[in-house]
Amino acid sequence: MPTCKTQVPTSVIKEYLHIEMNKTICDNPVCKANNECKRDIRKRFSSCGHKLCVICVSEQQHSYEDEVVCMAPACNPRQTEAMDITGIPNVGLTCYASCVLQVLGQTPKFTSMLREFANGTSKHGVAAHLDELLTHVNKAGNSQNLSVNWDSMNKLMHAIFTLDQSFQRYQENDCHSFIMSLFNALAKTDEDRKEKKPKPIENSFLDGTGMDETSNSRAEDSSEGRRSTSHEDGSTARRDDTCPTKLFESRIASKFKYSTCNHTENVADQLFYSLLLSATKDVTSIHCGLDLYFKSEDFTHNQVPCRECTKQDEHTTTSRTPLLSSAPQYLMIQLARFGEVCLNQTFNRILWITF
């Protein structure tokens, strides 16, 4: 085995290790500088020992007379308030839920709408537990938040486990399933307030049904999708305006066009909360995924027949084009990053990540 014939003096190695281990960086937790500039220290505070880089100093000091203050959280209460967002403890492999709850807690309007919505609900319900949890998450500087959050998280997840049997303690799950279950629970609370029978939230055409199925099953789904969802008064089912799920609510319609008779049919819009976009190697961006999703789809050999024509033509080609009739305030996208590989004709299907 070849060996290095160049001998590095021990003093040089010690000096190098001393410099590497004692490199200083800016103590500002919201420093906007890159890694190199963060190490370019221009201000050291003798009173506290904290340091600021050239970028942080230049943001405060426009002339030699301007005073530079320490931006470390221990010395700047405003920095503490800006940075402290209380963490959510794991109460049994619930990291998937913590991710969703942290995002919802920082979503504009969601917490305020939730607080108003939870006021008229039971204190033991999902809405009340969720409001309590997010309130403690967004309270900075409270040293007791960790224990309070554990209790709040435990009560919220217990309520979810009770309503949705697919979620259990110490069982892994995914974020999208959890947020849909959470929205279902809030919708059920909304329906209970109105003393109506709750309806589960469904994504209609957007739940990925038929993405990898045969054309016949896709045709059946499209035929079912043409059924109107309107009520007797001509309106469609919607959540109460005070329900926080309203922020994510959107509606999609479908336009069917038939090649032989040139008839067109517009199907009543349906409720959805998330878009399922295929994240394959050909989909390089969200815009590309949206274009692919809203692309027209053709059904040949009269698989989806025209409902206006009395005589059907087996050569009819029906095209279905999804149309967004109502855009949400916040668009939720689920990326389908998995594909199925059939090893034989019975089972043994494995999942693989495309990229």
Strand content: 15-25%
Oligomeric composition of the shown chains: single chain
Q: How many helices does DSSP assign?
A: 11
Mean pLDDT: 75
- Please tell me the total number of domains: 3
CATH superfamily of the largest domain: Cysteine proteinases
Side-by-side strand order of the widest sheet: 4-3-7-6
Largest sheet: 4 strands, antiparallel
Q: What would your notes on this structure say?
A:
- With 355 residues, this protein is of the alpha+beta class.
- It has three domains: 12-82, no CATH class; 85-193, no CATH class; 207-227 and 244-353, Cathepsin B, Chain A (Alpha-Beta Complex), CATH 3.90.70.10.
- It has eleven helices and ten strands.
- Strands 4-3-7-6 form a four-stranded antiparallel sheet, covered by helices on one side. A two-stranded antiparallel ribbon has the order 1-2. Strands 5-8 form a two-stranded parallel sheet.
- Strand 9 and strand 10 form a beta hairpin.
- Mean pLDDT is 75; it is low at 18-22, 79-83, 141-145, 203-218, 227-239 and 347-355.
